């Protein structure tokens, strides 16, 4: 019988908790040490895992040793290694020791802070840490608890957009005097970032045809054009529709474009919309004074969000959302429940974060962000951003520092390559110049496939204004200069092969 | 300068990752060893933490030692200790070593599996493990990937309800031929569990007045009455409204009531609604054959969800959702994005979980549930459920096994106490019998406060049919028989004090 005998069952025994956790720490340490040995993008075929694992759960317990063996043999080959220093796809998801320590504490304490009373520290630390973040970003006090606003930690930008959209919708429907007006409400966002806002708008009941992805173009470096926006709004108003919500983006997903927040803010005020600033990726950079101007105008917005789980050394997941008038969020999302009634909430001296988000239950994510900030300090967090930007610059156009390595000329200096959208942060959008423009997509798609299938790096692509390009998102935690140099060498090597063929 | 010097900045150095992680493991181990020394419910006052922490982030890095000191001195006193064996409030949030190991691996690998290609193992393991869970629950194959349906891991029941509601809404609006019909759609759920479904319905744009919380009563042990439901539906249809979605609950939050799934299913079919079964709490118990009959009729439903993060030894957060026709979910939640386009998705040989949930980004939660299942095996998971139920029975009415301890007579045997709603799982709903019925609420509220403020246990309350009662939710991972006996002694002691006063 042995370990199958239930009376020995102690699923949270402190000693075995410690022993087994340390074995997993060793496993992860080893993974980080060897991470460059794996092909960055997984090479498995669809359905590979069902051939390796049983199709139903085991009846008896299995050992950690067996489980870790399966993780090594069956799971790791199926991973695309986001923590690899050679991962340049999508946007990076920065893990760090500090973020991991915070996750461990969050998971170990495993408290559920839906309201203040259910774990006061979870609510209070969250309020403190979102204020810390807000101050690091030099947000006006109208967004801070220490001022007249407040913030919350969500899991994703989509959740932040869903919640603020719902708040805006309910506020508008009240003003318009009837729920049947929901079909008149219109949501606007840059064509560059449409999918999150579009999904969120659909989710909260906005008619599909009432979502406007404002076309962007090379002429504005793919920033939302206030003129196009105004034209779309005017047309909607003429058609009897009601502008509801405008999302401005600082650092779009496809090419890192920055909407002119100041100018958009003036428009939204004119039309009484809700104005949300989505700084999911580039918001973290705005902790550095040299990038902060991109947020100018945020003081006019209703809400702003950014994801520390992208570029701010915070393991998944963590999204900061600040609001000028959290009241509207709470009006829209709060529900009464006898089972949650308590004197602290009724005294109105505390806040209950369940009314600031979609779900009732919530993790103690604040612990993670708090440890990330303290363990690095603003100085190292800024250093992290700046070193990634500097590597992106190097990749883009800094001149060859070693004349013997002729391959290192980098994108902008190489006559075979060109920058497609000017770089603002650490995302480089480039392509191989086609001899005939109509072959550009095919050529660059082939080049991207060749790079990715080498296993030595992983990038993704984008399309703006009809132009297909390759995205090198520089900023994985472990990426160093030599990885960026190697990426360039790899690209050149694969490009030469394509030319020769 | 020392550690402030940025060139030494290595936020994911494997060696310090390992050393510091192990220090945090030691910290958490120590926390579990001492967990009974803390008052279960935190005694801090609103605003306590802002007096202890600086109001802005540090400029330079701080040591782990300093941070852990602050966790001990400032955070732990502000926690309500959900992992304490004396935590009997709300529903338990079961941490376990296995769940923690899974969280560590998830956080350490830190992959973002929004689509198949972004980390195939994340998608494939999730599909496999939801099938494992489905088979453990003896769900019909129409809910399994190995059959004709499929499942996904969400973070919360609310998310599962939001997504299925949106799918139902979009399907209905298409049938009705116009978005303006959204104001006609009506959602039904038990008055026992209204808040999650009500919040979700409001979020997706259902008119507030079109939510029906079906009244329940002592006569049906607070199960939803098919007659009341049918009456409400008929009335709505007469008024020109359209029944959209019915939520049946197996194990309601307030008192653990079970809706008659079979009978509800017959009604929903008649009216062409979407039928969702919410088994957030009690679903885990249905892995034991003796509880499975509560799910009878689920084969007729459209979707079912349960939260392993409650009673299934899975650290926060994890909610399983199964659907008969995942297609409707995907139709409602998918969005195209050039940046995510890839040949695997376009071949339709894989599934992309981003289209099964609210957010784009997603963690590798499947790893956690997979390790929980393997490390315990079905046998120990059933043992866990059964031992909690057996402790609840003991608390409720098992006879005194030690005649010298006269205080141990337990609720149902004690002439001063009574069971308010018959127990089905491990939640005991009881109250002290008042001499005058009108004093019942006050008396039990005082008793509950006396117990909770002792710091020796934490319970919450409920109200059904106008009766205030105390909930003892038995099933924290560390709870053993003697904790339940101590809880009863504590209640008796506090009750005697109240009587004497």
Automatic annotation (TrEMBL), chains A, B:
InterPro entries: Aromatic_deC, PyrdxlP-dep_de-COase, PyrdxlP-dep_Trfase, PyrdxlP-dep_Trfase_major, PyrdxlP-dep_Trfase_small, Pyridoxal-P_BS. One of its GO terms (cellular component) is cytoplasm. Gene3D superfamilies: Aspartate Aminotransferase, domain 1, dopa decarboxylase, N-terminal domain, Type I PLP-dependent aspartate aminotransferase-like (Major domain). SUPFAM superfamilies: PLP-dependent transferases (SSF53383). This is Tyrosine decarboxylase. GO terms for molecular function: carboxy-lyase activity; pyridoxal phosphate binding. Its cofactor is pyridoxal 5'-phosphate. Coiled coil: none annotated. GO terms for biological process: amino acid metabolic process; carboxylic acid metabolic process. The keyword Lyase applies. The keyword Transmembrane helix does not apply. Belongs to the group II decarboxylase family. Keywords: Decarboxylase, Lyase, Pyridoxal phosphate. The modification N6-(pyridoxal phosphate)lysine is found at residue 310.
């Amino acid at each position: 019988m042995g370990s199958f005998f239930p009376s020995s069952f102690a699923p949270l025994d402190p000693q075995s908790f410690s022993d087994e956790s340390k074995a997993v720490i060793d496993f992860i340490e080893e993974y980080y040490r060897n991470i460059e040995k794996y092909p960055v993008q997984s090479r498995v075929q669809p359905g590979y895992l069902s051939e390796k694992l049983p199709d139903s759960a085991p009846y008896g317990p299995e050992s950690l040793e067996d489980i870790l063996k399966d993780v090594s043999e069956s799971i790791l080959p199926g991973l695309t290694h986001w923590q690899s220093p050679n991962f340049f796809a999508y946007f990076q998801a920065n893990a760090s020791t500090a973020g991991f320590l915070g996750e461990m504490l969050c998971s170990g304490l495993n408290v559920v802070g839906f309201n203040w009373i259910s774990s006061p520290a979870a609510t209070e630390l969250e309020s403190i840490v979102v204020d810390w973040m807000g101050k690091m970003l030099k947000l006006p006090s109208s967004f801070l608890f220490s001022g007249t606003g407040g913030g919350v930690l969500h899991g994703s930008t989509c959740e932040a957009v869903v919640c603020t959209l719902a708040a805006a919708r309910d506020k508008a429907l009240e003003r318009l005097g009837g729920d049947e007006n929901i079909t008149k409400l219109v949501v606007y966002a840059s064509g560059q970032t449409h999918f999150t806002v579009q999904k969120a708008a659909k989710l909260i009941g906005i008619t599909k045809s009432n979502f406007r992805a404002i076309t962007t173009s090379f002429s504005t470096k793919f920033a939302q054009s206030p003129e196009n926006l105004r034209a779309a709004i005017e047309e909607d108003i003429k058609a009897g529709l009601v502008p509801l919500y405008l999302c401005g983006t600082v650092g779009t997903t496809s090419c890192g474009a920055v909407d002119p927040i100041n100018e958009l803010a003036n428009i939204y005020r004119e039309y009484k919309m809700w104005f949300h600033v989505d700084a999911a990726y580039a918001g973290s950079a705005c902790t550095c004074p040299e990038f902060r101007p991109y947020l100018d105008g945020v003081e006019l917005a209703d809400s702003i969000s950014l994801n520390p789980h992208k570029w701010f050394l915070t393991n998944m997941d963590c999204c900061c959302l600040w609001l000028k008038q959290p009241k509207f969020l709470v009006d829209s999302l709060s529900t009464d429940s006898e089972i949650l009634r308590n004197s602290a909430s009724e005294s109105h001296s505390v806040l209950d974060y369940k009314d600031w988000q979609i779900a009732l239950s919530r993790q103690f994510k604040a612990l993670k962000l708090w440890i990330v900030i303290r363990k690095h300090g603003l100085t190292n967090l800024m250093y992290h951003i700046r070193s990634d930007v500097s590597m992106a610059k190097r990749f883009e156009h800094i001149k060859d520092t070693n004349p013997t390595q002729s391959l290192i000329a980098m994108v902008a200096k190489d006559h075979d390559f060109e920058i497609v959208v000017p770089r603002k942060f650490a995302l480089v959008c480039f392509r191989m110049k086609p001899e005939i423009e109509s072959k550009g997509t095919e050529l660059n798609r082939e080049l991207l496939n060749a790079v990715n299938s080498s296993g030595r790096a992983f990038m993704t692509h984008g399309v703006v204004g009809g132009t297909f390009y390759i995205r090198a998102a520089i900023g994985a935690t472990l990426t160093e200069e030599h990885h960026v140099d190697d990426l360039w060498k790899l690209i050149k090597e694969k490009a030469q092969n394509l030319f020769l063929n």
